[in-house]
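## Example record

The block below lists the input lines for one assembly entry, exactly as stored, with component labels intact.
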Amino acid sequence: MDFGKIEKKWQKIWKAKKFYKTKDKISGKKNFYHLVMFPYPSGNLHIGHWYNFAPSDIFARFKKMSGFNILSPIGFDAFGLPAENAAIKRNIHPKDWTYKNIKTMSKQLESMGNMYDWSREIITADPQYYKWTQWMFLQLYKKGLVYKKKAPANWCPKCHTVLANEQVISGQCERCDSQVIQREIEQWLFKITDYADKLLKDLDDLDWPEKTKTMQRNWIGKSEGTEIEFKINDSEFKINIFTTRLDTIFGCTYLVMAPEHSLLKNNKLGINNYEEVKNYLDQAKNKSDLQRTELQKNKTGVELKGIKAINPFNNEEIPVYVADYVLGYYGTGAVMAVPAHDQRDFEFAKKYKLPIKQVICQNYPSPICPILEKAFTENGHLVDSKNFTGLTPQKAREEMANWLEKNKVGKKNINYKIRDWLVSRQRYWGAPIPIIYCDKCGIIPVPEKNLPVKLPNVKNYLPTEEGKSPLAHSKKFINTKCPQCGAQAKRETDTMDTFVCSSWYYLRYADPNNSKKFADPKKIKAWLPVNMYIGGAEHSVLHLLYARFLTKVLYDLKFINFKEPFASLKHQGIILGPDGQKMSKSRGNVIDPDELVRQFGSDCVRMYLAFMGQYDQGGPWNPTGILGIKRFLERIWNSKNIIKNQKSWVKNADIEKLFHQTIKKVSEDIENFQFNTAISALMVLLNEVEKHKNSLSISHYSLFLKLLAPFAPHLSEELWQKLENKKSIHLESWPKYNPELIKEKEFELIIQINGKIKDKMFVNSGISQQKAQEIALNSEKIKSAISPDQKIKKIIFVPDKLINIVI
RNA sequence: GCUCUCGUGGCGGAAUUGGCAUACGCGCGGCGCUUAGAACGCCGUCCCGCAAGGGUUAGAGGUUCAAAUCCUCUCGAGAGCACCA
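Predicted structure tokens for the full assembly:
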């Protein structure tokens, strides 16, 4: 049977009839926004894309048949580094490369037969789209959530651009794996840190995978502690430190400042050995993140000679060091070092022969504490801590913080790990940042009416080493007039991180062709927030965090009336190559879905992907089982003859019951994204039906086709129309089961002794414990298993399941 | 180092969430159909045992009438973060 032929036929008909065009409102139906993360136009679809798009379409089709008005759009995340890098490698203009890929990938996507509304397609590299990306930038700018600063940033020497914190993986560039270095450069940032608390709190109410929420929580990294002032002796300067272990302050034997600390610039503190310190600062600056990490085991630092800091709790004078194991961007950029209770301080103190003073001890009130071979970080009681001695660390932190606040030398404070989102890129293939520099007026945002700032079609799009965008070479682009005073001015030449484009695209689908607004508020209201969002877990702290941030900003600006973009979220697993490695062209382990579709048909491929295993698990691609699905579909195709050749129909209560049980099982499984067990239930049903051919009526057969429709949209449509139905099966409503009919009249009672199965027996459903007990004790097997001298201690009865005799 | 997943036949995986372990599919074996094969159909297929029966969810303990499921430790695989004070 050539399924490919049927599939092409229906795809053509659906396209011609605009069958999947979405209406914003259908009376009597609730809207349901079903969204799959839009693809990056990298070249061709691989089987991983199919795994993302095909099973999710099963869910969408099921929801549609269940009575919802579905929005299931598609588009392309078209700007960005990888496309640009790939284009450069092939010596093609990024635009040509990207649009060529979009064309191929669209064709491939169509061959899946998904219910996408192509009239709503969006492409983020389209000026009609990025006009609004630039508009978003301006809204954030107005709200004071965008700023520019010159500071060390993650620089990828191969991509010639800065990267956001989220795009640096273990000190390496997310895209090309080059070692990222720190480079002082002018950059634009979004103040995502202002939203750290909201981003954290609102996670609680989201229907998202728990691990994804955990990842975001860790990324945001809330940490409650105390900020303390340490005065410098004979000086007006103070060093502020942040700690979560205030209880250990009597064990503080020195302070450490990060090399980036502002008090270290130009020898403000009047240090005696500034030459030496300056040398150290310069060295630290040139270290990459990775180098700094690699040196974890071998910490370095320099003492600031000639100054001492004063511990406010005991007025002890302690030395101050600069060391790059302290981070400049976290907390206050300085810490109090307690070697006895912090492993990093412990290592440093050992190396520089600094005192290690234990103030938390397990043995309290015994005065003898064990000698430390590493930092002691567990719980105990305070020792050698003046009037705080004897307290638990928890209690001590409370009381010490009160003491600090009373004496005005410190206060409770909260720090977050998350850093501001660096959005500027020194690259060509992105949305230009809508900013103008005027000698007189300074930094001026482009007026909204002048948007979009179009990306010019330049010949020279190669990135440059000096840290400037290729757009800096385009005189036509740079030179402009100041919107405020009209004088000659220059445009910003950096472009935006592609994650800015993708952080709001879900809003645009509600109204993709609007030229006056990013979307009509009525249409936004009709569809958003997204009801079901599906995509890879690799975006947990990138796209998914950025999208939440932008939604919250738009909410605060009153453009939208919801705080979270994606009500429910599901991740699909990753399909690896047959060798168990990540699929990549260089490894040569990429599976081409087109070839599989030619061989088996798209219904078969999508169904096999759904059948392979749990949707969120993935794993190595193993094609051996696809024949099972192929056979299943062939059997369904042949089953039309059962009806045709049927002479007399015999009602069969068991088959009747199985049908209703299958409706229940399939419905619940699709709702829970358990497509594999839903398909297996359909297989069980077909197996039974084939055994009792004469008990299959036309209405049973129709019902089966409806259950099949989300999984195999083409085949089910073909068979449906062969039954002389005029309308499409995809306009039918999802079958409902009769709760009365699925009830089992009998069940197999499991009879256990001490939890081990000894006998099984069919009995009527709903029997009482008494009755079950009687039956169980009368069983020959049970009788012989219990010797006369053994007494029954207890009997456990689980209704309609089992009875357990404890002896 | 920290945070978090996961480990079930030869393979992909089920198990109503603590109540019949191995559903469904692949593969394999046997039989049928066939000149033969392919395809298809039927039967079998966790291990030991002729059987009665016993054992089995990476391994070892524990909780429970009852554990693949909960707890502790060990081993193994994977993901994310990583000097965050």
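The CA atoms of residues 33 and 378 of chain A lie 49 Å apart. The mean pLDDT of chain A is 90.
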